[in-house]
């Protein structure tokens, strides 16, 4: 391990202070490579390799997005094919077909390359304009990364609640948001299955927090934004997965939304507008039908545990209304 670290240090040092000038090495003039950890050294090496920070950031941002999005969604495709996992499916009678999965994948890929790629490519110039650190090393402390990402979660959840709720208003729903609601029983790949305008509108909440924070204090590293984007993608895909596992976050963080919350939104088409947290829906009363529905489900399971069939339990609950 020491040999690998020493070799990497020597490689990085050669890139920064080369005998033969290396294009892009001037980005790190005066940087002491021996003081950097292995991740910071690889970060430096990436930017020196490409030479141009705009190209290096653009490629890294897009590749990261694709790897995380499909890397997180594909396991749910496998789970959908496993009958043993039906007990965790929130709408267990609605399993996405192979055609639905493939049609969704084609549309999402088209959206990624035609709608999101130009936005991702313009990300670096905007970051630089606002004073965000991109290629620079060393990285910020873990504590700083943690509190900044916490702010991003709160900002995005608030923005998303109100923007999402607005998208359910007549014309906006009909011409924009309806596309996302083609699947009444969502699945992981459908997290970004949306109209281009919706991608832009709701995406503003995701990237708006980092931009706003950077504009206010000019103390933000793009690594923090990358970690935030990864967590946000995980959250969005999990919320659309259609599965509620015992280890799902809402089972140990009561105010976390998760699939249990968002799946009902797709099922009912209204209510439960939040992304990460439940508090806006609770405060605004837009989760009342969700709470009643889940309470009935709980009672139905109790009746079935006492020997009733699914049909008998449903009939008994109808009589008690």
UniProtKB/TrEMBL annotation:
Residues 151-286 form the Fatty acid hydroxylase domain. It is found in: Membrane. It comes from Tilletiaria anomala (strain ATCC 24038 / CBS 436.72 / UBC 951). One of its GO terms (biological process) is lipid biosynthetic process. The keyword Transmembrane helix applies. InterPro entries: Fatty_acid_hydroxylase (IPR006694), Sterol_Desaturase_Related (IPR050307). The chain crosses the membrane at residues 54-79. This is Putative ERG25-C-4 methyl sterol oxidase.
């Amino acid at each position: 391990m020491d040999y690998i670290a020493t070799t990497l240090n020597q490689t990085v040092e050669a890139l920064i202070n080369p005998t033969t000038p290396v294009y892009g090495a001037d980005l790190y003039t005066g940087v002491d490579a021996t003081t950097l950890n292995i991740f910071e050294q690889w970060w430096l090496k990436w930017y020196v390799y490409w030479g141009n920070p705009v190209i290096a950031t653009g490629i890294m941002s897009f590749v990261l997005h694709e790897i995380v999005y499909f890397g997180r969604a594909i396991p749910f495709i496998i789970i959908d094919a496993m009958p043993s996992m039906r007990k965790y499916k929130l709408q267990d009678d609605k399993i996405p077909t192979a055609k639905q999965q493939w049609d969704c994948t084609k549309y999402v890929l088209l959206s990624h390359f035609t709608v999101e790629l130009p936005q991702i490519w313009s990300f670096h110039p905007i970051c630089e304009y606002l004073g965000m650190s991109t290629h620079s090393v060393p990285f910020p402390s873990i504590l700083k990364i943690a509190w900044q990402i916490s702010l991003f979660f709160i900002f995005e959840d608030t923005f998303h609640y109100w923007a999402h709720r607005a998208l359910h208003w007549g014309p906006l729903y009909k011409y924009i948001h309806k596309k996302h609601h083609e699947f009444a029983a969502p699945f992981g790949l459908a997290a970004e299955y949306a109209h281009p305008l919706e991608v832009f509108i709701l995406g503003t909440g995701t990237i708006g927090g980092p931009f706003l924070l950077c504009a206010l204090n000019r103390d933000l590293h793009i690594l923090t934004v990358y970690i935030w984007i990864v967590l946000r993608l995980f959250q969005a895909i999990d919320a659309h997965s259609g599965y509620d596992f015992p280890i799902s976050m809402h089972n140990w963080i009561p105010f976390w939304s998760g699939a249990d919350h968002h799946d009902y939104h797709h099922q009912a088409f209204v209510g439960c507008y939040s992304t990460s947290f439940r508090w806006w829906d609770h405060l605004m009363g837009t989760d009342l039908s969700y709470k009643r529905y889940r309470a009935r489900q709980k009672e139905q399971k109790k009746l079935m545990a006492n020997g009733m069939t699914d049909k008998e339990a449903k009939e008994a609950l109808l009589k008690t209304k």
